[in-house]
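Operator note (shift B, R.M.): manual run for 1-acyl-sn-glycerol-3-phosphate acyltransferase requested after the automated queue skipped it. Running by hand, logging everything below so the morning shift can see what happened. Input copied straight from the record, untouched. If output looks odd, do not overwrite the archive copy; leave it for review.
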Amino acid sequence: MAFTRQNWRGGEHIPPAGTGVVVAGNHISHFDPLTFAHFLWDNGRATRYLAKSGVFRVPVFGRLITAAGQIPVYRESRDASQAYRAAVAAVRAGELVAIYPEGTISRDPGLWPMVGKTGAARVALETGCDVIPVAQWGANHVLAPYSKRLRLLPRKTMHVVAGPPVPLDDLRGKPVDGVTLRVATDRIMAAITAQLAEIRGEIAPAERFDPKAVGLPPVGDPKQRRDEQQQPEEQP
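Run finished. Output pasted below as returned.
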């Protein structure tokens, strides 16, 4: 992406091709799947996305990720389990599966990672693979959340940072129940949040934002709701 600058860090944590792995990242823009995939490609890995089905309908981006064989998640439907099975099969086949645990673009007022869903943890615990946390920032300055207007100038910097595997060994071998999945998911989100705080040079909120707690719908632009949360302006 010649129209942006890249600040890639932590590539040494991405395992080599042929190693099944889950990479879990924060979601801040419909543009960030491209920066996420670019980072992983530059570190030697093709990406299979586990992403909400709505992303596949976004002009241009949707066609690109469909052609690349990504995995749509049809949330709140009978087809949702198909995505999980496809992700497990991909990891067992030695592929890298990228998952946004939040399940949607962050609705946190400051675009910090929200409470995560348990899919990434479930895939990791079933397959025994590592979860690599990845934080990203900057894509939201090119394409603001739920916006359709690209802002290419002035040239933006895309920050993507990978961290070491999330410690899950003490959870492996335990029943994969709600308690275990929540513990694993909280660790994943904490690792992503810590890396994002480093990128931004800011302190993350003490508690992660939970859209359900404020009555936001699971999908769609929260600005369409009366209790919308205002997004932050681009930082200089």
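Quick read of the result: Residues 106 and 159 are 17 Å apart (CA to CA). Confidence is low (pLDDT under 50) at residues 226-236.
Leaving this for review. - R.M.
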